Amino acid sequence: MTDRPTDLPPDTPPPHNDLILAVARDRDRVAFGALFGHFAPRLKAYLMRLGADSATAEELVQEVMVMVWRRAETFDPGQANASTWIYTIARNKRIDSLRRQRRPEIDPDDPALVPDEPVAADRTVELAQQGARLRAALAQLPPEQADLLRLAYFEDLPHSAIAAKRNLPLGTVKSRLRLAMDRLRRLLKDDAL
Q: How far is CA 185 from CA 54, 58, 138, 142, in A?
């Protein structure tokens, strides 16, 4: 897979470089056809070695060659030869293709993406009042019970983690939580009357 015929001296630029330069300079369709004829089957094989199936490889070859046509003026033979430039484009297209495959398409009708209905003003006031009542009831609990409730329900820690964090036996944690919940229910019930 070389870009230069064997009868050219080693310091002669590869002929594919000239073809790309002709495309860049003159939008030479014949030169582009020669590039396409040479590189398309090789690119397909290369992309299939990278893991693309035949149909995807063909599609990517088309994208690569369109980019060669559109971006030929950016080719710099001083930095790379034609095959290196074209294969780099192919590799990048393959990476883009893999990224597209791994990124799921968003379904606008997905219920998870539909925003919640705004809370009505009266419901917002009611929730604020309930929150205030709950805070007031929590303030009336013994500090060790309020602390355990905060860890269990606001920080969502399991009882065993609370026991380890507070250096208490698991049974003590469970008993205090049960007592705290009973007391909290009574306080909220009395407040509602």
A: 67, 69, 10, 14
CATH code, domain with 169 = 1.10.10.10
Query: Are the CB atoms for 27 and 70 separated by under 8 Å?
Result: no
Between CA 49 and CA 69 the distance in angstroms is 24
* Co-location of 152 and 97 in the same domain: no
In a domain, residue 131? The reply is: no
Q: Report the alpha-carbon distance of residue 111 to residue 142 in Å, rounded.
A: 43
CA distances from 61 to 42, 66, 91, 130 (A): 9, 9, 10, 64
Condensed to tens digits (0 to 9), the pLDDT of residues 33-51 reads 999 999 999 999 999 998 8
**What is the pTM (predicted TM-score) of this model?**
0.48
Q: Contact at 8 Å (CB) between 17 and 31?
A: no
Name the residue range of residue 176's domain.
Answer: 139-192
